[in-house]
Amino acid sequence: xxxxxxxxxxxxxxxxxxxxxxxxxxxxxxxxxxxxxxxxxxxxxxxxxxxxxxxxxxxxxxxxxxxxxxxxxxxxxxxxxxxxxxxxxxxxxxxxxxxx
Length: 100
Hints:
The chain has 100 residues and is mainly α. The chain has three helices and no strands.
């Protein structure tokens, strides 16, 4: 029984790491790879500009959504007023008095 539990753990570990061991060996990187990594880290102003552009774009989208929701609200209010007006005009009429 004890042996079965250990085999299950080994299989589980193998499945988790997909054949890789936890002793990962470092690999040599090329000069281009290293420069590319440092370029990403050093170029913070580009990242800040990109974030600022995204923020402006998000603000524009929110403004458009706000305008659309105001228009929708206005349309809903006018529809409700027309429905109330129609209900007042037709509340005392019988069904056979309506012209289709």
